[in-house]
Amino acid sequence: MAVVLFVARCDFVDDPSPSRLVVEAFLLSGEPLPEIVLRQTRGLRNPVPPQDSTADAATGAVVTVAIGSDTVAYLPGTTPGRYRPARPVIAKPGESFSVRVQWKGEVVTAAGTVPEPIGIGEACVRVPDDPVEAILVDSLRRDSLDIPAEQGYIFPIDVSVDWQDSTDDDSWVRTGIRPSSDFSSGVVELFLQPVEVDRESDFSFASGSASRRQWVGVYAVSAEDSTAPVPAHEITVSLTRGDSAFASFASSRTDPERREPVSNVDGGIGVATAVALDTLRLAVSEATSGEQCELP
């Protein structure tokens, strides 16, 4: 079996519009309120100087987070553009929250609900006995009929993971596999499925269960030749639960057709959402073949 991979390119056009406020706020279910990062947009002709990573920081903002029956003021952090809560408050599952930022006479807001915790149950890795041939085609050379191609071998590896279903019908889940090494991280996702974002109720139930959801993804690692064993490596499996705003952001942030991810911030851009997260690290050795399962 041969696999053909393509690389895509996107073009960018300068945006002469005025600076807009960019909000980055990720509340973690069951954890204290996090820092909030505020930046301002800059045109491509006015980039951030390489020696000054804080040149686009939005300073002097008034930031508050209302969560449950509490309202928490935020204070400037030690790094420009970062704001920290004035006191520790836990983001409890099921609580509604809203973020309000006042900056340069403008007010931006965002709101959501803290999701239920999520936990990885059983995670299984299935390694094929032999690698398969893969052909990498560089489609960046669109100005030439002589398109270069490289031939190699990869192990496409299945990973399955299950978790307890949410009681919230509106919850979304992002599943992900991040290997420590791969065939070509920029193109693997074009023909494999190391990441998926979907409504939680659309994931299938695990075998023999009416309360646990399951996902099967695929990633790849390179092999030296057609007879080589699978190279030893590690992977991190992740589950992230959130609302529709989180799902829109997560699914659009790598879209080459978009200049920026989908935003849920009224009056600005960026994202302010709450998520529940769990990860599990798995080791795959050269001796691994067939199915190998682990519990947290």
Write the layout of secondary structure elements.
Blueprint: E1 2-6, E2 21-28, E3 36-40, E4 62-67, E5 70-76, E6 82-85, E7 96-103, E8 106-113, E9 120-127, E10 132-137, E11 149-164, E12 172-179, E13 195-199, E14 212-223, E15 233-242, H1 244-252, E16 269-284, E17 290-294
Features:
17 strands, DUF4249 domain-containing protein, 296 residues, DUF4249, mainly beta, Immunoglobulin-like, disordered N terminus
Summarize the structure.
With 296 residues, the protein is mostly beta strands.
Q: Could you walk me through the main structural features you see in this protein, from its secondary elements to its overall organization?
A:
The chain has 296 residues and is mainly beta. The chain folds into two domains: 21-113, Immunoglobulin-like, CATH 2.60.40; 117-260 and 272-291. The chain contains one helix and 17 strands. The protein has one helix at residues 244-252, and strands spanning 2-6, 21-28, 36-40, 62-67, 70-76, 82-85, 96-103, 106-113, 120-127, 132-137, 149-164, 172-179, 195-199, 212-223, 233-242, 269-284, 290-294. The strands form two sheets. An eleven-stranded mixed beta sheet has the order 8-7-4-5-6-3-2-16-15-12-13, covered by helices on one side. Strands 1, 9, 10, 11, 14 and 17 form a six-stranded mixed beta sheet that branches. The longest helix is centred in the C-terminal third of the chain and has 9 residues, at 244-252. Mean pLDDT is 85; it is low at 1-13, 139-144 and 184-190. This is DUF4249 domain-containing protein.
